[in-house]
Specification:
By secondary structure, the protein is mainly α. The protein is built from ten helices and two strands; from the N terminus they run αααβαααβαααα.
């Protein structure tokens, strides 16, 4: 988590350092996949801020941009205790690096801080996507991924993978393995108008993904 935050803050200034860090951390996995004639797929969102240098290290890399309704994202973060200082990973959670947003940040509620995290992370990804060819990225909504088998089929096609089986996908969707069970915070639809307005103010990118707030 700390390395991820440092990448967010510094990767544009010292890309060569992060290339070496990423290569050292992943080349053995890639070598093993190649030896087995397999595809290596990384699902770890903590390397998001390393994305600008990944194709420098592994030129055949492609990217799936997974987006989630900002209200659901904020609810999850509230339930997990993000930006309380008490969560194990808060030490590596990004915060504004420029002076102007920092002043507003210091007065922000946790809902606003987690909303900023959603918008800032997706903004970072969008900047990367503008530098890549369309066939090198695929944008997927989490809501579709976890409800529509056709979305997973799109991913298989994008990654040029064989073995898509609709029955298996239906069975997996019926019993999600990563459903969050800890913490308590209302669903977005049950928020107060004040909190919904706070969210809308901090996530201007929501409309780009056709999210209605």
């Amino acid at each position: 988590m700390r390395a991820s935050k440092l990448a967010y803050e510094n990767i544009s200034r010292t890309p060569e350092l992060y290339r070496e860090v990423f290569k050292s951390a992943r080349e053995e996995y890639l070598l093993e996949a190649a030896q087995r004639q397999q595809v290596f797929i990384e699902t770890n969102n903590r390397i998001t801020f390393f994305a600008p240098i990944i194709r420098d290290v592994f030129p055949n890399a492609v990217f799936i941009h997974l987006v989630r309704h900002p209200g659901d994202f904020v609810r999850s973060g509230m339930r997990r205790g993000w930006y309380t200082g008490g969560h194990d990973h808060d030490i590596g959670r990004i915060t504004p690096v420029n002076t102007a947003p920092l002043v507003k940040w210091q007065q922000a509620s946790r809902i606003e801080k987690i909303a900023w995290l959603w918008n800032e992370t997706n903004s970072f990804v969008e900047q990367l996507k503008r530098r890549l060819h369309s066939e090198q990225t695929l944008t997927v909504k989490a809501e579709d991924l976890f409800s529509e088998p056709s979305t997973l089929k799109r991913i298989f096609l994008f990654l040029q993978l064989r073995g898509f089986d609709r029955k298996t996908v239906h069975a997996m969707l019926a019993r999600p393995a990563n459903a969050q069970r800890k913490g308590s915070f209302p669903s977005y639809l049950d928020w107060s108008d004040k909190d919904k307005h706070k969210l809308k103010e901090w996530v201007p990118l929501a409309s780009q993904y056709s999210y209605v707030l």
